[in-house]
Amino acid sequence: MRRVIVAPSLLSADFADMGSALGRVGDSGAEWVHLDVMDGRFVPNLTFGPQMVRDLKNRSGLFFDAHLMTVEPERLVDDFIDAGADAITFHVEACVHAHRLCQRIRAAGRKAGVSIVPSTPASALAELLPYVDLVLVMSVNPGFGGQKMIPECMDKLATLRDERQKRGLDFLLEVDGGINAQTAALALESGADVLVMGSAFFDAPEPAALVAMVRKLGESQPPADAPKRR
Ligand code: DX5
Ligand code: ZN
């Protein structure tokens, strides 16, 4: 059966009460929590750094999915490894030596992820795909929660899914931006394995029902080219 992972994003939580927000994610049945790190340079917003990740990780057994929206991610990666992030995803637009950085993350025993903004083609990842555990396709211009999904980005998921199958690779495909109960279907049809949900999750009256619904939606679709390693 196809496995679908929901990764609620703390970006839409009350920043004065992150501990409760983390509890809400755990209680919902989601397995991952998505941590949006913004530096006010790569994106026009600021969030939090490794200390927040460390303190939250001490309270939770969830899989910590760190999304670095920063310039020069190579300067920060070690801090997030030390803080306990399970997956560290950085933007190829922000890193010249992306291949080296992926190897560094993997050498530390963490999952290495690469991300592309909506204006970057999937082909920009061609050389990197064998070296990553996760590909994060942004479906909004990163920086803020609550934006509308750019549907054209779904084509990139399908392209990457096909590429994965053709080349016998096994990275997970993650989609981030504007995913809600309605748009989740399109993302899943296009091949997403991991769905980030920020505002949809924190606005939901019953987050557990939302997580279960999205998971069921994905499981009802054929596994087709499910990655070998999970
Ligand atoms: C946007 C972040 C997202 C954000 C998604 O720059 O990378 O992870 O939390 O929020 P929603 O789901 O509200 O679009
Ligand atoms: Zn994100």
Q: Low-confidence parts, pLDDT < 50 over ≥5 residues?
A: none
Helix-strand makeup class: alpha/beta
CATH architecture: Alpha-Beta Barrel
**Topology, number of strands:** 8
Element pattern in H and E? EHEHEHEHEEHEHEHH
Label the overall shape: globular
| Domain module count | 1
Task: Tally the helices.
Answer: 8
CATH superfamily: Aldolase class I
Mind explaining what this structure looks like?
It is a single chain. The protein has 230 residues and is an alpha/beta fold. It has a single domain (5-219), classed as TIM Barrel (Alpha-Beta Barrel). The chain contains eight helices and eight strands. The protein has helices spanning 18-27, 50-57, 77-83, 98-107, 153-167, 184-190, 199-203, 207-219; strands at 5-8, 32-38, 63-69, 87-91, 111-116, 134-138, 172-176, 194-197. The chain has an eight-stranded parallel beta sheet. Helix 5 (153-167) packs parallel to helix 6. It starts with a strand and ends in an 11-residue tail after the last helix. The model has no long low-confidence stretch (mean pLDDT 96). Bound molecules: D-xylitol-5-phosphate and zinc ion. The site of zinc ion has 6 residues, from strand 2.
